[in-house]
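Could someone model magnesium ion with this protein?
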Amino acid sequence: MEFDGDIARKTGSPSLLAVEAIKTQRAGEIGRSSGLFYVPKVISFDAGAGVLEFERLRGLVTLFDLAVKKDPRLFELLEKTGRALAAIHRQLVLPDEVKHELPPEWMGPADENVFIHGDLASINVCFHEPSRGLVILDWSAAPIMGRTPTFGSRFFDILWFACCIFRDVPAKRLLSWDAETMTDTFIRGYANASSEDKLSRFPDYLSKIYRLQRRKIRYLARRRSPVKAALYIFYQLFMYARLHTFLQNYKL
Ligand SMILES: Nc1ncnc2c1ncn2[C@@H]1O[C@H](COP(=O)(O)OP(=O)(O)O)[C@@H](O)[C@H]1O
Ligand SMILES: [Mg+2]
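Reply:
Sure, complex below.
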Protein backbone atom coordinates (compact mmCIF):
# COMPACT_ATOMS: atom_id res chain seq x y z
CA MET A 1 0.00 0.00 0.00
CA GLU A 2 1.35 3.41 -0.89
CA PHE A 3 -0.15 6.75 -0.02
CA ASP A 4 -0.39 9.77 -2.25
CA GLY A 5 -2.32 12.68 -0.77
CA ASP A 6 -5.87 11.49 -0.23
CA ILE A 7 -5.31 8.26 -2.16
CA ALA A 8 -4.26 4.82 -0.85
CA ARG A 9 -2.87 2.79 -3.74
CA LYS A 10 -2.33 -0.95 -4.18
CA THR A 11 -0.44 -2.40 -7.12
CA GLY A 12 -0.25 -6.05 -8.10
CA SER A 13 -1.88 -8.80 -10.08
CA PRO A 14 -4.74 -7.27 -12.12
CA SER A 15 -6.95 -10.33 -11.69
CA LEU A 16 -6.54 -10.35 -7.89
CA LEU A 17 -7.05 -6.60 -7.64
CA ALA A 18 -10.17 -6.84 -9.82
CA VAL A 19 -11.68 -9.24 -7.28
CA GLU A 20 -10.56 -7.05 -4.38
CA ALA A 21 -12.16 -4.02 -6.05
CA ILE A 22 -15.55 -5.64 -6.46
CA LYS A 23 -15.50 -7.20 -2.98
CA THR A 24 -14.52 -3.85 -1.46
CA GLN A 25 -17.44 -2.12 -3.18
CA ARG A 26 -20.02 -4.74 -2.22
CA ALA A 27 -18.75 -4.90 1.34
CA GLY A 28 -18.95 -1.12 1.57
CA GLU A 29 -22.67 -1.31 0.73
CA ILE A 30 -23.21 -3.91 3.47
CA GLY A 31 -21.28 -1.76 5.93
CA ARG A 32 -23.50 1.23 5.14
CA SER A 33 -26.80 -0.64 5.20
CA SER A 34 -25.98 -2.49 8.43
CA GLY A 35 -24.49 0.60 10.06
CA LEU A 36 -21.83 -1.67 11.59
CA PHE A 37 -18.67 -0.82 9.68
CA TYR A 38 -17.12 1.29 6.94
CA VAL A 39 -14.99 0.22 3.98
CA PRO A 40 -12.80 2.76 2.13
CA LYS A 41 -14.34 3.65 -1.22
CA VAL A 42 -12.71 2.44 -4.42
CA ILE A 43 -11.65 5.51 -6.42
CA SER A 44 -10.34 3.80 -9.54
CA PHE A 45 -9.09 0.50 -10.91
CA ASP A 46 -6.68 0.27 -13.81
CA ALA A 47 -6.77 -3.35 -14.94
CA GLY A 48 -4.00 -2.85 -17.51
CA ALA A 49 -1.53 -1.45 -15.01
CA GLY A 50 -2.76 -3.44 -12.00
CA VAL A 51 -3.43 -0.37 -9.87
CA LEU A 52 -6.28 -0.09 -7.41
CA GLU A 53 -6.90 3.22 -5.68
CA PHE A 54 -8.94 3.77 -2.53
CA GLU A 55 -9.93 6.84 -0.62
CA ARG A 56 -7.37 7.30 2.13
CA LEU A 57 -8.77 7.43 5.64
CA ARG A 58 -6.79 9.38 8.22
CA GLY A 59 -6.85 8.47 11.86
CA LEU A 60 -7.04 4.67 11.52
CA VAL A 61 -5.72 2.51 14.32
CA THR A 62 -5.77 -1.26 13.96
CA LEU A 63 -7.43 -3.47 16.58
CA PHE A 64 -4.02 -5.06 17.00
CA ASP A 65 -2.57 -1.70 18.03
CA LEU A 66 -5.47 -1.13 20.42
CA ALA A 67 -4.77 -4.55 21.97
CA VAL A 68 -1.08 -3.70 22.38
CA LYS A 69 -2.04 -0.44 24.08
CA LYS A 70 -4.69 -2.17 26.22
CA ASP A 71 -7.19 0.34 24.96
CA PRO A 72 -10.49 0.00 26.85
CA ARG A 73 -12.48 0.27 23.59
CA LEU A 74 -10.98 -2.95 22.26
CA PHE A 75 -13.57 -5.43 23.50
CA GLU A 76 -16.55 -3.45 22.30
CA LEU A 77 -14.87 -3.26 18.87
CA LEU A 78 -14.14 -6.99 18.81
CA GLU A 79 -17.77 -7.75 19.58
CA LYS A 80 -18.80 -5.41 16.78
CA THR A 81 -16.32 -7.08 14.42
CA GLY A 82 -18.08 -10.39 15.11
CA ARG A 83 -21.45 -8.84 14.33
CA ALA A 84 -20.02 -7.20 11.22
CA LEU A 85 -18.68 -10.55 10.00
CA ALA A 86 -22.09 -12.16 10.52
CA ALA A 87 -23.64 -9.40 8.37
CA ILE A 88 -20.97 -9.92 5.69
CA HIS A 89 -21.60 -13.66 5.63
CA ARG A 90 -25.33 -13.08 5.44
CA GLN A 91 -25.30 -10.43 2.74
CA LEU A 92 -22.17 -10.56 0.61
CA VAL A 93 -22.98 -11.82 -2.88
CA LEU A 94 -20.44 -11.68 -5.70
CA PRO A 95 -20.86 -12.42 -9.40
CA ASP A 96 -20.26 -16.01 -10.53
CA GLU A 97 -17.09 -15.10 -12.38
CA VAL A 98 -15.41 -14.15 -9.09
CA LYS A 99 -16.79 -17.05 -7.08
CA HIS A 100 -13.59 -18.95 -6.29
CA GLU A 101 -13.86 -21.74 -3.75
CA LEU A 102 -11.56 -22.40 -0.81
CA PRO A 103 -9.72 -25.76 -0.92
CA PRO A 104 -12.18 -28.69 -0.53
CA GLU A 105 -11.47 -29.19 3.18
CA TRP A 106 -12.80 -25.66 3.79
CA MET A 107 -16.01 -26.24 1.87
CA GLY A 108 -19.02 -27.14 3.99
CA PRO A 109 -22.64 -28.01 3.39
CA ALA A 110 -24.58 -25.48 1.29
CA ASP A 111 -26.05 -23.59 4.26
CA GLU A 112 -22.59 -23.07 5.71
CA ASN A 113 -20.82 -21.75 2.63
CA VAL A 114 -20.73 -18.00 2.18
CA PHE A 115 -18.72 -15.32 0.43
CA ILE A 116 -15.85 -14.67 2.82
CA HIS A 117 -13.65 -11.74 3.78
CA GLY A 118 -10.70 -14.09 3.39
CA ASP A 119 -8.10 -12.41 5.59
CA LEU A 120 -9.97 -11.15 8.61
CA ALA A 121 -7.27 -10.35 11.17
CA SER A 122 -6.81 -7.70 13.83
CA ILE A 123 -4.41 -5.82 11.53
CA ASN A 124 -7.10 -5.54 8.85
CA VAL A 125 -9.79 -4.21 11.18
CA CYS A 126 -9.41 -0.65 12.40
CA PHE A 127 -10.94 1.94 14.65
CA HIS A 128 -11.40 5.25 12.85
CA GLU A 129 -10.79 7.95 15.44
CA PRO A 130 -12.60 10.82 13.65
CA SER A 131 -15.88 8.91 13.18
CA ARG A 132 -15.38 6.52 16.12
CA GLY A 133 -16.45 3.74 13.76
CA LEU A 134 -15.15 0.35 12.73
CA VAL A 135 -13.33 0.06 9.39
CA ILE A 136 -12.66 -3.24 7.63
CA LEU A 137 -9.81 -3.32 5.10
CA ASP A 138 -7.99 -5.69 2.78
CA TRP A 139 -10.65 -7.66 0.95
CA SER A 140 -8.37 -10.17 -0.70
CA ALA A 141 -7.85 -13.66 0.72
CA ALA A 142 -4.86 -14.47 2.94
CA PRO A 143 -1.64 -15.27 1.05
CA ILE A 144 -1.53 -18.72 2.70
CA MET A 145 -4.81 -19.55 0.90
CA GLY A 146 -3.41 -18.32 -2.40
CA ARG A 147 -5.24 -14.96 -2.30
CA THR A 148 -7.90 -16.04 -4.80
CA PRO A 149 -10.68 -17.76 -2.79
CA THR A 150 -13.85 -15.77 -2.21
CA PHE A 151 -16.26 -18.50 -1.15
CA GLY A 152 -16.35 -21.32 1.40
CA SER A 153 -17.19 -22.30 4.94
CA ARG A 154 -18.03 -19.41 7.28
CA PHE A 155 -15.70 -21.11 9.80
CA PHE A 156 -12.70 -20.10 7.72
CA ASP A 157 -13.13 -16.39 8.53
CA ILE A 158 -14.12 -17.06 12.14
CA LEU A 159 -11.24 -19.40 12.93
CA TRP A 160 -8.68 -17.46 10.91
CA PHE A 161 -9.43 -14.39 13.01
CA ALA A 162 -8.91 -16.50 16.15
CA CYS A 163 -5.59 -17.84 14.80
CA CYS A 164 -4.32 -14.36 14.00
CA ILE A 165 -5.14 -13.08 17.48
CA PHE A 166 -3.15 -15.89 19.10
CA ARG A 167 -0.27 -15.75 16.62
CA ASP A 168 0.15 -11.97 16.53
CA VAL A 169 1.15 -11.84 20.20
CA PRO A 170 3.99 -9.36 20.76
CA ALA A 171 6.89 -11.32 22.31
CA LYS A 172 6.96 -9.06 25.36
CA ARG A 173 3.27 -9.64 26.03
CA LEU A 174 3.35 -13.44 26.02
CA LEU A 175 1.80 -13.76 29.47
CA SER A 176 -0.44 -10.71 29.41
CA TRP A 177 -1.91 -11.16 25.90
CA ASP A 178 -5.47 -12.17 26.62
CA ALA A 179 -6.09 -13.89 23.30
CA GLU A 180 -8.76 -16.11 24.86
CA THR A 181 -11.02 -13.23 25.96
CA MET A 182 -10.38 -11.33 22.72
CA THR A 183 -11.37 -14.34 20.60
CA ASP A 184 -14.34 -15.20 22.79
CA THR A 185 -15.65 -11.62 22.54
CA PHE A 186 -15.39 -11.71 18.75
CA ILE A 187 -17.09 -15.12 18.42
CA ARG A 188 -19.88 -14.04 20.78
CA GLY A 189 -20.50 -11.00 18.61
CA TYR A 190 -20.84 -13.30 15.61
CA ALA A 191 -23.10 -15.72 17.48
CA ASN A 192 -25.32 -12.93 18.85
CA ALA A 193 -25.98 -11.74 15.32
CA SER A 194 -26.66 -15.21 13.89
CA SER A 195 -29.17 -17.96 14.48
CA GLU A 196 -27.85 -20.55 16.94
CA ASP A 197 -27.33 -23.44 14.56
CA LYS A 198 -24.96 -21.36 12.40
CA LEU A 199 -22.05 -22.28 14.67
CA SER A 200 -22.95 -25.87 15.49
CA ARG A 201 -20.40 -27.39 13.07
CA PHE A 202 -17.54 -25.47 14.69
CA PRO A 203 -15.76 -28.67 15.95
CA ASP A 204 -15.54 -30.08 12.40
CA TYR A 205 -12.99 -27.44 11.49
CA LEU A 206 -10.65 -27.52 14.45
CA SER A 207 -8.09 -29.98 13.09
CA LYS A 208 -8.02 -27.97 9.85
CA ILE A 209 -7.40 -24.67 11.54
CA TYR A 210 -4.65 -26.16 13.73
CA ARG A 211 -2.94 -27.44 10.58
CA LEU A 212 -3.20 -24.01 8.96
CA GLN A 213 -1.81 -22.32 12.07
CA ARG A 214 1.18 -24.70 12.15
CA ARG A 215 1.84 -24.04 8.46
CA LYS A 216 1.73 -20.28 8.96
CA ILE A 217 4.06 -20.45 11.98
CA ARG A 218 6.56 -22.56 10.00
CA TYR A 219 6.34 -20.11 7.12
CA LEU A 220 6.93 -17.10 9.36
CA ALA A 221 9.78 -18.86 11.22
CA ARG A 222 11.59 -19.59 7.94
CA ARG A 223 11.63 -15.89 7.16
CA ARG A 224 13.67 -15.18 10.30
CA SER A 225 17.38 -15.69 11.07
CA PRO A 226 18.07 -19.04 12.83
CA VAL A 227 18.29 -17.48 16.31
CA LYS A 228 15.17 -15.39 15.88
CA ALA A 229 13.35 -18.35 14.33
CA ALA A 230 14.14 -20.52 17.37
CA LEU A 231 12.81 -17.86 19.72
CA TYR A 232 9.77 -17.31 17.51
CA ILE A 233 8.94 -21.02 17.44
CA PHE A 234 9.36 -21.22 21.21
CA TYR A 235 6.75 -18.59 21.99
CA GLN A 236 4.51 -19.59 19.11
CA LEU A 237 4.38 -23.15 20.49
CA PHE A 238 3.19 -21.69 23.77
CA MET A 239 0.48 -19.69 21.98
CA TYR A 240 -0.42 -22.68 19.81
CA ALA A 241 -0.99 -24.77 22.93
CA ARG A 242 -3.23 -22.01 24.30
CA LEU A 243 -5.17 -21.77 21.02
CA HIS A 244 -5.65 -25.54 21.02
CA THR A 245 -6.84 -25.65 24.65
CA PHE A 246 -9.14 -22.69 24.08
CA LEU A 247 -10.82 -24.06 20.96
CA GLN A 248 -11.05 -27.67 22.19
CA ASN A 249 -12.94 -26.52 25.27
CA TYR A 250 -14.88 -23.73 23.62
CA LYS A 251 -18.57 -23.54 24.49
CA LEU A 252 -20.81 -20.85 23.18
N1 LIG B 1 -7.94 3.32 2.62
C1 LIG B 1 -6.95 3.38 3.51
N2 LIG B 1 -6.71 4.55 4.16
C2 LIG B 1 -5.71 4.63 5.04
N3 LIG B 1 -4.87 3.63 5.36
C3 LIG B 1 -5.07 2.45 4.75
C4 LIG B 1 -6.10 2.26 3.79
N4 LIG B 1 -6.05 1.01 3.34
C5 LIG B 1 -5.03 0.42 3.98
N5 LIG B 1 -4.42 1.28 4.82
C6 LIG B 1 -3.25 1.00 5.67
O1 LIG B 1 -2.36 0.18 4.95
C7 LIG B 1 -2.22 -1.07 5.60
C8 LIG B 1 -2.16 -2.20 4.57
O2 LIG B 1 -3.37 -2.22 3.84
P1 LIG B 1 -4.07 -3.58 3.43
O3 LIG B 1 -5.28 -3.24 2.61
O4 LIG B 1 -4.27 -4.40 4.64
O5 LIG B 1 -3.00 -4.19 2.46
P2 LIG B 1 -2.08 -5.49 2.46
O6 LIG B 1 -2.69 -6.34 1.40
O7 LIG B 1 -0.75 -4.96 2.13
O8 LIG B 1 -2.15 -6.13 3.83
C9 LIG B 1 -3.39 -1.18 6.58
O9 LIG B 1 -3.07 -1.93 7.71
C10 LIG B 1 -3.65 0.27 6.93
O10 LIG B 1 -2.79 0.67 7.97
MG1 LIG C 1 -3.60 -6.28 5.33
